[in-house]
Design goal:
5-stranded mixed sheet, 208 residues, 9 helices
Length: 208
């Protein structure tokens, strides 16, 4: 009985609302117009914001003192943004606890996957040098765990003497303070500053 009464009341309410809407259809038209206008405005603002973001990324430049003054995590984001500036639209910062030696990953315009470890030194070249233990970690994870084609260690400081021969023997790439300064200044993308890079995956398959 109660359910029947509730159902009847509900049906009556629906009929009353329907009649009111029919009598005030212009309110619906105004509401639809307002919602449409608000949605259009939001889309326009989003498009403008995205366009300016792309312009900002393309014009991104850093000087070495700026990079020295960053927190180590902000340094990783700066490296990510430099990769995006140079055409790696999928560049992401992945550093943190349990990152297994990778702080930034990206795919360059020819399809190579980059795995980058960042070592920030607040004192720049005067800080403690990056040593071979960091390279050993990166060498053990960059390709096996992260699938890197190009495995890089970048620092705003310097490397110990043993890093260069180890990196060369293991086909790793070092970006020291000098190379970082040239790259961050916007002269050329990183892949034009490094030597002995692997060919693009497409070229490798064509040759294999």
């Amino acid at each position: 009985m109660v359910l029947a009464i509730a159902a009847g009341a509900g049906a009556g309410l629906c009929v009353a609302v329907g009649q009111w809407l029919l009598g005030n259809w212009w309110l619906l038209a105004v509401l639809a117009g307002l919602l449409g206008g608000a949605g259009g405005l939001w889309l326009t603002q989003w498009a403008v914001s995205a366009r300016w973001e792309r312009v900002h990324v393309r014009m991104l430049r850093y000087e070495l003192p700026q990079l020295d003054g960053l927190h180590h995590e902000d340094f990783e984001f700066a490296v990510r943004d430099l990769m995006r500036r140079d055409g790696c639209s999928d560049a992401v910062q992945v550093g943190g606890a349990g990152d297994n030696g990778a702080d930034v990953t990206a795919t360059d315009p020819v399809g190579r996957r980059w795995v980058i470890q960042c070592k920030h030194r607040q004192d720049g070249a005067s800080g403690s040098p990056v040593g071979t233990p960091d390279l050993h970690v990166l060498n053990g994870t960059g390709r096996q765990l992260h699938g890197g084609d190009v495995v890089v260690l970048v620092t705003n400081g310097r490397f110990t003497a043993g890093c260069e021969p180890l990196a060369k023997s293991q086909k790793l790439h070092l970006v020291d303070r000098g190379t970082l300064g040239e790259w961050a200044a916007g002269s050329r993308p990183l892949w034009e500053l490094l030597q002995r890079l692997p060919p693009s995956p497409g070229r490798r398959s064509a040759l294999s």
